Amino acid sequence: MNKILPAYDVHPITVKMLRKGHPWIIKDKFTEKFHPRDRFIVAKDRRRPFALLIHDPRHKHVKARLWATQGDFGSKIKNFRKDMVQRIQKAITKRKQKNILSERQNFYLVFGEADQLPGVHVQYLNGELLVQFYSYFWDAYTDYFIDNLLKTTNKVLGLEIFKGNVWIQHRADGDSKQQKAKSLDPNISFRKVEVQEFGVNYNVELGKHYDCGLYTDMAAIRRVLAKDFENSNSFLNLYSYTGAFSLFALKHGVQDVVSVDLSEKYLEQLEQNIALNEELDPSHHKSMAMSTQDALQKLKEEKKKFDLIVSDPPSSSSDGNKRTNALQNYEKELPKMKDLLAEGGKLLIFLNTRRVTRNKFESKINDIIKKNNLGLKVGKKLGLSDDCPYLKGFPEGAYLKGLVLTHD
Ligand SMILES: C[S@@+](CC[C@H](N)C(=O)[O-])C[C@H]1O[C@@H](n2cnc3c(N)ncnc32)[C@H](O)[C@@H]1O
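Above: inputs. Below: predicted complex with S-adenosylmethionine.
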Protein backbone atom coordinates (compact mmCIF):
# COMPACT_ATOMS: atom_id res chain seq x y z
CA MET A 1 0.00 0.00 0.00
CA ASN A 2 1.12 3.54 -0.79
CA LYS A 3 2.96 4.91 2.27
CA ILE A 4 1.58 8.43 2.05
CA LEU A 5 -2.00 7.28 2.61
CA PRO A 6 -3.26 8.31 6.06
CA ALA A 7 -4.15 4.80 7.22
CA TYR A 8 -5.35 4.10 10.78
CA ASP A 9 -6.77 1.23 12.77
CA VAL A 10 -10.34 1.72 13.86
CA HIS A 11 -12.34 0.11 16.66
CA PRO A 12 -13.43 -3.48 15.89
CA ILE A 13 -17.04 -2.37 16.42
CA THR A 14 -16.52 0.44 13.90
CA VAL A 15 -15.24 -2.16 11.41
CA LYS A 16 -18.34 -4.24 11.95
CA MET A 17 -20.68 -1.27 11.69
CA LEU A 18 -19.01 0.07 8.54
CA ARG A 19 -19.28 -3.33 6.94
CA LYS A 20 -22.99 -3.42 7.79
CA GLY A 21 -23.51 -0.09 6.07
CA HIS A 22 -23.35 2.29 9.04
CA PRO A 23 -21.45 5.30 7.64
CA TRP A 24 -20.48 7.19 10.83
CA ILE A 25 -17.28 6.84 12.85
CA ILE A 26 -18.07 8.02 16.35
CA LYS A 27 -15.45 9.58 18.64
CA ASP A 28 -13.44 6.95 20.54
CA LYS A 29 -9.83 6.20 21.50
CA PHE A 30 -9.05 5.17 17.92
CA THR A 31 -10.34 8.40 16.35
CA GLU A 32 -8.16 10.34 18.82
CA LYS A 33 -5.14 9.08 16.88
CA PHE A 34 -6.36 10.52 13.55
CA HIS A 35 -4.07 13.43 12.70
CA PRO A 36 -6.14 16.66 12.71
CA ARG A 37 -4.63 17.72 9.41
CA ASP A 38 -5.64 14.56 7.53
CA ARG A 39 -8.66 15.38 5.39
CA PHE A 40 -9.11 11.74 4.49
CA ILE A 41 -8.65 8.65 6.61
CA VAL A 42 -8.11 5.14 5.34
CA ALA A 43 -9.60 2.74 7.89
CA LYS A 44 -7.74 -0.54 8.39
CA ASP A 45 -9.09 -3.86 9.55
CA ARG A 46 -6.29 -6.11 10.75
CA ARG A 47 -3.78 -4.09 8.70
CA ARG A 48 -5.87 -4.25 5.55
CA PRO A 49 -7.31 -0.96 4.28
CA PHE A 50 -11.03 -1.40 3.81
CA ALA A 51 -12.74 2.01 3.87
CA LEU A 52 -12.03 5.57 2.82
CA LEU A 53 -13.44 8.15 5.22
CA ILE A 54 -13.85 11.91 5.15
CA HIS A 55 -12.42 13.33 8.36
CA ASP A 56 -14.08 15.89 10.63
CA PRO A 57 -11.79 16.58 13.59
CA ARG A 58 -13.91 19.56 14.73
CA HIS A 59 -17.17 17.64 15.03
CA LYS A 60 -17.86 16.74 18.66
CA HIS A 61 -19.35 13.36 18.00
CA VAL A 62 -19.07 12.11 14.37
CA LYS A 63 -15.34 12.14 13.68
CA ALA A 64 -15.44 10.69 10.17
CA ARG A 65 -17.98 9.55 7.58
CA LEU A 66 -17.77 6.82 4.98
CA TRP A 67 -16.82 7.91 1.47
CA ALA A 68 -15.92 4.61 -0.26
CA THR A 69 -15.28 0.95 0.38
CA GLN A 70 -14.33 0.04 -3.19
CA GLY A 71 -11.48 0.98 -5.48
CA ASP A 72 -7.96 2.22 -4.99
CA PHE A 73 -8.15 4.68 -2.10
CA GLY A 74 -5.10 6.65 -3.27
CA SER A 75 -6.76 7.48 -6.58
CA LYS A 76 -10.12 7.97 -4.86
CA ILE A 77 -8.55 10.76 -2.81
CA LYS A 78 -7.03 12.29 -5.95
CA ASN A 79 -10.36 12.06 -7.75
CA PHE A 80 -12.41 13.24 -4.80
CA ARG A 81 -13.83 16.33 -6.55
CA LYS A 82 -14.77 14.35 -9.63
CA ASP A 83 -16.54 11.71 -7.51
CA MET A 84 -18.33 14.44 -5.59
CA VAL A 85 -19.71 15.92 -8.82
CA GLN A 86 -20.83 12.50 -10.04
CA ARG A 87 -22.66 11.90 -6.77
CA ILE A 88 -24.40 15.28 -7.05
CA GLN A 89 -25.47 14.39 -10.58
CA LYS A 90 -26.75 11.00 -9.50
CA ALA A 91 -28.75 12.46 -6.59
CA ILE A 92 -30.42 15.15 -8.70
CA THR A 93 -31.13 12.78 -11.59
CA LYS A 94 -32.93 10.45 -9.16
CA ARG A 95 -35.25 13.30 -8.11
CA LYS A 96 -35.87 14.20 -11.74
CA GLN A 97 -36.90 10.61 -12.47
CA LYS A 98 -39.36 10.68 -9.58
CA ASN A 99 -40.88 13.82 -11.11
CA ILE A 100 -41.37 15.37 -7.66
CA LEU A 101 -41.31 18.91 -9.08
CA SER A 102 -44.71 18.28 -10.70
CA GLU A 103 -46.34 17.90 -7.26
CA ARG A 104 -44.43 20.23 -5.00
CA GLN A 105 -41.94 23.07 -5.03
CA ASN A 106 -40.12 21.82 -1.94
CA PHE A 107 -37.99 18.72 -2.07
CA TYR A 108 -34.57 17.43 -1.18
CA LEU A 109 -32.05 17.30 -4.04
CA VAL A 110 -29.45 15.72 -1.79
CA PHE A 111 -30.15 13.78 1.41
CA GLY A 112 -26.75 13.20 2.95
CA GLU A 113 -25.45 9.71 3.59
CA ALA A 114 -28.21 8.03 1.57
CA ASP A 115 -27.04 9.96 -1.50
CA GLN A 116 -23.39 9.14 -0.73
CA LEU A 117 -22.78 12.80 0.11
CA PRO A 118 -22.31 12.39 3.87
CA GLY A 119 -23.34 15.33 6.01
CA VAL A 120 -24.91 17.45 3.24
CA HIS A 121 -28.60 18.12 2.71
CA VAL A 122 -29.86 20.31 -0.12
CA GLN A 123 -33.46 21.48 -0.40
CA TYR A 124 -35.08 23.09 -3.39
CA LEU A 125 -37.57 25.70 -2.22
CA ASN A 126 -39.27 27.24 -5.24
CA GLY A 127 -36.22 28.76 -6.92
CA GLU A 128 -34.02 28.88 -3.80
CA LEU A 129 -31.50 26.27 -2.72
CA LEU A 130 -30.96 25.66 0.99
CA VAL A 131 -27.68 23.83 1.55
CA GLN A 132 -27.21 22.42 5.06
CA PHE A 133 -23.80 21.19 6.12
CA TYR A 134 -23.79 18.81 9.09
CA SER A 135 -20.04 18.23 8.85
CA TYR A 136 -17.16 20.74 8.98
CA PHE A 137 -15.34 18.58 6.44
CA TRP A 138 -17.20 20.40 3.66
CA ASP A 139 -15.81 23.82 4.67
CA ALA A 140 -12.79 23.17 2.43
CA TYR A 141 -14.99 22.32 -0.57
CA THR A 142 -17.97 24.65 -0.20
CA ASP A 143 -17.32 26.79 -3.32
CA TYR A 144 -16.65 23.80 -5.53
CA PHE A 145 -19.68 21.98 -4.17
CA ILE A 146 -21.99 24.97 -4.74
CA ASP A 147 -20.69 25.68 -8.27
CA ASN A 148 -21.34 22.11 -9.31
CA LEU A 149 -24.62 21.86 -7.45
CA LEU A 150 -25.91 24.93 -9.34
CA LYS A 151 -24.64 23.72 -12.70
CA THR A 152 -26.16 20.27 -12.23
CA THR A 153 -29.49 21.43 -10.80
CA ASN A 154 -30.00 23.87 -13.68
CA LYS A 155 -28.98 21.35 -16.30
CA VAL A 156 -30.82 18.28 -15.01
CA LEU A 157 -34.01 20.02 -13.85
CA GLY A 158 -34.01 22.70 -16.56
CA LEU A 159 -34.02 25.53 -14.00
CA GLU A 160 -32.33 28.93 -13.79
CA ILE A 161 -31.02 29.24 -10.28
CA PHE A 162 -28.24 31.75 -9.54
CA LYS A 163 -25.72 32.08 -6.74
CA GLY A 164 -27.89 34.75 -5.08
CA ASN A 165 -30.55 32.07 -4.61
CA VAL A 166 -28.25 29.80 -2.63
CA TRP A 167 -28.48 29.75 1.18
CA ILE A 168 -25.90 28.03 3.34
CA GLN A 169 -26.65 26.79 6.82
CA HIS A 170 -24.01 25.28 9.11
CA ARG A 171 -25.56 22.62 11.32
CA ALA A 172 -22.47 20.72 12.43
CA ASP A 173 -22.87 22.14 15.95
CA GLY A 174 -26.14 20.28 16.27
CA ASP A 175 -29.05 22.34 17.47
CA SER A 176 -27.00 24.12 20.12
CA LYS A 177 -25.98 27.22 18.16
CA GLN A 178 -29.07 27.43 15.96
CA GLN A 179 -27.29 29.28 13.15
CA LYS A 180 -29.52 30.79 10.49
CA ALA A 181 -29.04 30.17 6.79
CA LYS A 182 -26.94 32.83 5.02
CA SER A 183 -27.42 33.96 1.45
CA LEU A 184 -24.44 33.80 -0.90
CA ASP A 185 -25.47 37.31 -1.93
CA PRO A 186 -23.84 39.51 0.74
CA ASN A 187 -26.52 42.18 0.25
CA ILE A 188 -29.36 39.86 1.22
CA SER A 189 -29.97 38.64 4.76
CA PHE A 190 -33.54 37.41 4.51
CA ARG A 191 -36.00 36.28 1.86
CA LYS A 192 -39.63 35.22 1.99
CA VAL A 193 -40.78 32.83 -0.73
CA GLU A 194 -44.08 31.18 -1.42
CA VAL A 195 -43.78 27.43 -1.84
CA GLN A 196 -46.52 25.18 -3.17
CA GLU A 197 -46.83 21.65 -1.79
CA PHE A 198 -49.66 19.45 -3.18
CA GLY A 199 -51.64 22.47 -4.30
CA VAL A 200 -51.30 24.39 -1.01
CA ASN A 201 -49.21 27.55 -0.64
CA TYR A 202 -46.93 28.14 2.32
CA ASN A 203 -44.61 30.97 3.28
CA VAL A 204 -41.00 29.95 3.68
CA GLU A 205 -38.57 32.34 5.34
CA LEU A 206 -34.89 31.98 4.59
CA GLY A 207 -32.29 33.63 6.78
CA LYS A 208 -34.78 34.45 9.55
CA HIS A 209 -34.95 31.44 11.89
CA TYR A 210 -33.16 28.14 12.37
CA ASP A 211 -35.98 26.32 10.53
CA CYS A 212 -37.52 27.83 7.43
CA GLY A 213 -41.24 27.38 8.13
CA LEU A 214 -41.97 24.16 6.26
CA TYR A 215 -40.65 20.68 7.03
CA THR A 216 -39.87 19.19 3.65
CA ASP A 217 -38.98 15.78 5.11
CA MET A 218 -42.69 15.44 6.10
CA ALA A 219 -43.99 16.16 2.60
CA ALA A 220 -43.82 12.56 1.34
CA ILE A 221 -45.64 11.44 4.51
CA ARG A 222 -48.40 14.02 3.97
CA ARG A 223 -48.89 12.62 0.49
CA VAL A 224 -49.28 9.05 1.78
CA LEU A 225 -51.95 10.28 4.22
CA ALA A 226 -54.11 12.10 1.65
CA LYS A 227 -56.85 9.43 1.73
CA ASP A 228 -57.05 9.53 5.53
CA PHE A 229 -57.62 13.28 5.39
CA GLU A 230 -60.23 12.91 2.65
CA ASN A 231 -62.14 10.46 4.85
CA SER A 232 -62.11 12.68 7.94
CA ASN A 233 -64.44 15.41 9.12
CA SER A 234 -62.39 16.57 12.05
CA PHE A 235 -58.63 16.85 12.59
CA LEU A 236 -56.47 17.72 15.58
CA ASN A 237 -52.92 18.87 14.79
CA LEU A 238 -50.75 18.69 17.92
CA TYR A 239 -47.39 20.52 17.78
CA SER A 240 -48.67 22.10 14.58
CA TYR A 241 -45.80 24.54 13.89
CA THR A 242 -46.82 26.67 10.87
CA GLY A 243 -49.64 24.28 10.02
CA ALA A 244 -48.54 22.18 7.06
CA PHE A 245 -50.80 19.30 8.21
CA SER A 246 -53.66 21.66 9.07
CA LEU A 247 -53.66 23.28 5.63
CA PHE A 248 -53.34 19.87 4.00
CA ALA A 249 -56.46 18.83 5.96
CA LEU A 250 -58.40 21.95 4.91
CA LYS A 251 -57.38 21.31 1.31
CA HIS A 252 -58.82 17.79 1.59
CA GLY A 253 -62.16 19.13 2.78
CA VAL A 254 -61.86 18.51 6.53
CA GLN A 255 -64.54 20.72 8.14
CA ASP A 256 -63.20 21.06 11.67
CA VAL A 257 -59.43 21.58 12.05
CA VAL A 258 -57.77 22.45 15.36
CA SER A 259 -54.06 23.34 15.58
CA VAL A 260 -52.17 23.37 18.87
CA ASP A 261 -48.76 24.96 19.37
CA LEU A 262 -47.01 26.57 22.28
CA SER A 263 -45.79 29.35 20.02
CA GLU A 264 -48.15 32.21 19.14
CA LYS A 265 -45.67 33.29 16.49
CA TYR A 266 -45.92 29.97 14.63
CA LEU A 267 -49.71 30.01 14.89
CA GLU A 268 -49.71 33.52 13.39
CA GLN A 269 -47.62 32.16 10.52
CA LEU A 270 -50.13 29.30 10.22
CA GLU A 271 -52.99 31.78 9.88
CA GLN A 272 -51.01 33.77 7.31
CA ASN A 273 -50.49 30.52 5.42
CA ILE A 274 -54.26 29.91 5.37
CA ALA A 275 -54.76 33.46 4.08
CA LEU A 276 -52.35 32.72 1.20
CA ASN A 277 -54.81 30.12 -0.08
CA GLU A 278 -58.04 31.76 -1.19
CA GLU A 279 -59.95 28.51 -1.52
CA LEU A 280 -59.29 27.52 2.12
CA ASP A 281 -61.98 28.68 4.52
CA PRO A 282 -60.44 30.00 7.77
CA SER A 283 -63.76 29.49 9.59
CA HIS A 284 -63.05 25.73 9.48
CA HIS A 285 -59.88 26.27 11.50
CA LYS A 286 -59.13 27.09 15.13
CA SER A 287 -55.72 27.80 16.72
CA MET A 288 -54.93 26.98 20.33
CA ALA A 289 -51.79 28.71 21.59
CA MET A 290 -50.92 26.53 24.57
CA SER A 291 -49.07 23.37 25.53
CA THR A 292 -50.32 20.09 24.12
CA GLN A 293 -51.01 18.90 27.68
CA ASP A 294 -53.28 21.86 28.39
CA ALA A 295 -54.99 21.63 25.01
CA LEU A 296 -55.74 17.93 25.49
CA GLN A 297 -57.30 18.70 28.85
CA LYS A 298 -59.36 21.61 27.51
CA LEU A 299 -60.62 19.65 24.50
CA LYS A 300 -61.62 16.79 26.77
CA GLU A 301 -63.62 19.15 28.96
CA GLU A 302 -65.31 20.44 25.81
CA LYS A 303 -66.11 16.78 24.94
CA LYS A 304 -64.50 17.16 21.52
CA LYS A 305 -63.76 14.13 19.32
CA PHE A 306 -61.56 13.92 16.22
CA ASP A 307 -61.42 11.48 13.32
CA LEU A 308 -57.73 12.11 12.85
CA ILE A 309 -55.08 13.27 15.31
CA VAL A 310 -51.45 14.02 14.40
CA SER A 311 -48.81 14.43 17.08
CA ASP A 312 -45.40 15.55 15.82
CA PRO A 313 -43.47 16.79 18.87
CA PRO A 314 -39.93 18.18 18.88
CA SER A 315 -37.43 15.60 20.20
CA SER A 316 -37.30 17.50 23.47
CA SER A 317 -39.55 20.30 24.60
CA SER A 318 -40.42 22.49 27.51
CA ASP A 319 -43.92 23.58 28.48
CA GLY A 320 -42.42 26.54 30.29
CA ASN A 321 -41.78 24.53 33.45
CA LYS A 322 -39.66 21.50 32.81
CA ARG A 323 -37.83 19.94 29.88
CA THR A 324 -39.01 16.52 28.80
CA ASN A 325 -38.38 14.32 25.80
CA ALA A 326 -40.97 13.33 23.26
CA LEU A 327 -40.95 9.64 24.13
CA GLN A 328 -41.57 10.35 27.83
CA ASN A 329 -44.35 12.77 26.93
CA TYR A 330 -46.27 10.04 25.14
CA GLU A 331 -46.74 8.33 28.52
CA LYS A 332 -48.94 11.19 29.62
CA GLU A 333 -50.27 12.38 26.30
CA LEU A 334 -51.21 9.17 24.51
CA PRO A 335 -54.03 8.23 26.93
CA LYS A 336 -55.39 11.78 26.60
CA MET A 337 -55.20 11.66 22.82
CA LYS A 338 -57.09 8.37 22.90
CA ASP A 339 -59.88 10.09 24.89
CA LEU A 340 -60.31 12.53 22.00
CA LEU A 341 -60.31 9.91 19.24
CA ALA A 342 -63.66 9.36 17.52
CA GLU A 343 -64.92 5.82 16.91
CA GLY A 344 -63.04 4.45 13.89
CA GLY A 345 -60.55 7.34 14.06
CA LYS A 346 -56.79 7.28 13.51
CA LEU A 347 -54.00 8.55 15.68
CA LEU A 348 -50.73 9.37 13.86
CA ILE A 349 -47.84 9.73 16.24
CA PHE A 350 -44.30 10.74 15.32
CA LEU A 351 -40.90 10.72 16.90
CA ASN A 352 -38.27 12.92 15.35
CA THR A 353 -34.88 12.03 16.77
CA ARG A 354 -31.73 10.17 15.78
CA ARG A 355 -31.31 8.91 19.34
CA VAL A 356 -34.24 6.47 19.51
CA THR A 357 -34.64 3.60 17.08
CA ARG A 358 -37.95 2.67 15.48
CA ASN A 359 -38.03 -0.57 17.48
CA LYS A 360 -37.60 1.26 20.74
CA PHE A 361 -40.29 3.78 19.80
CA GLU A 362 -42.72 1.05 18.85
CA SER A 363 -42.09 -1.07 21.91
CA LYS A 364 -42.49 1.96 24.21
CA ILE A 365 -45.80 2.85 22.54
CA ASN A 366 -46.99 -0.75 22.87
CA ASP A 367 -46.06 -0.64 26.57
CA ILE A 368 -48.04 2.57 27.09
CA ILE A 369 -51.05 1.06 25.28
CA LYS A 370 -50.90 -2.07 27.44
CA LYS A 371 -50.25 -0.34 30.74
CA ASN A 372 -53.17 2.04 30.28
CA ASN A 373 -55.50 -0.43 28.62
CA LEU A 374 -55.99 1.96 25.74
CA GLY A 375 -57.55 -0.52 23.34
CA LEU A 376 -55.37 0.73 20.50
CA LYS A 377 -53.23 -1.20 18.06
CA VAL A 378 -50.22 -0.21 15.99
CA GLY A 379 -50.95 -0.34 12.26
CA LYS A 380 -49.10 1.19 9.35
CA LYS A 381 -45.61 2.58 9.81
CA LEU A 382 -44.64 5.96 8.42
CA GLY A 383 -41.17 7.27 7.70
CA LEU A 384 -38.84 9.08 5.37
CA SER A 385 -39.35 8.27 1.69
CA ASP A 386 -39.19 9.58 -1.90
CA ASP A 387 -36.73 12.49 -1.89
CA CYS A 388 -35.59 11.56 1.65
CA PRO A 389 -34.05 8.09 1.35
CA TYR A 390 -32.17 6.30 4.13
CA LEU A 391 -29.60 3.56 4.33
CA LYS A 392 -30.13 0.09 5.69
CA GLY A 393 -27.97 -0.37 8.78
CA PHE A 394 -28.03 3.36 9.61
CA PRO A 395 -30.90 4.01 12.03
CA GLU A 396 -29.70 7.57 12.74
CA GLY A 397 -30.44 8.40 9.09
CA ALA A 398 -34.06 7.24 9.48
CA TYR A 399 -34.67 9.80 12.22
CA LEU A 400 -38.32 10.49 11.40
CA LYS A 401 -40.58 7.67 12.59
CA GLY A 402 -44.35 7.53 12.58
CA LEU A 403 -46.98 5.02 13.69
CA VAL A 404 -50.65 4.82 12.83
CA LEU A 405 -52.75 3.77 15.83
CA THR A 406 -56.34 2.60 15.48
CA HIS A 407 -58.94 1.11 17.82
CA ASP A 408 -58.22 -2.52 18.58
C1 LIG B 1 -41.36 19.38 14.85
S1 LIG B 1 -42.35 20.83 14.94
C2 LIG B 1 -43.82 20.23 14.21
C3 LIG B 1 -43.83 20.24 12.68
C4 LIG B 1 -45.18 20.09 12.02
N1 LIG B 1 -45.84 18.84 12.38
C5 LIG B 1 -45.05 20.16 10.49
O1 LIG B 1 -45.04 19.12 9.80
O2 LIG B 1 -44.92 21.28 10.00
C6 LIG B 1 -42.65 20.95 16.68
C7 LIG B 1 -43.55 22.13 17.16
O3 LIG B 1 -43.89 21.87 18.52
C8 LIG B 1 -44.03 23.12 19.22
N2 LIG B 1 -43.98 22.79 20.68
C9 LIG B 1 -42.88 22.56 21.43
N3 LIG B 1 -43.24 22.19 22.69
C10 LIG B 1 -44.61 22.21 22.72
C11 LIG B 1 -45.58 21.89 23.71
N4 LIG B 1 -45.21 21.49 24.94
N5 LIG B 1 -46.88 22.00 23.38
C12 LIG B 1 -47.27 22.40 22.15
N6 LIG B 1 -46.39 22.70 21.16
C13 LIG B 1 -45.08 22.61 21.44
C14 LIG B 1 -42.95 23.98 18.66
O4 LIG B 1 -43.29 25.35 18.84
C15 LIG B 1 -42.94 23.51 17.17
O5 LIG B 1 -43.74 24.38 16.42
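The mean pLDDT is 95.
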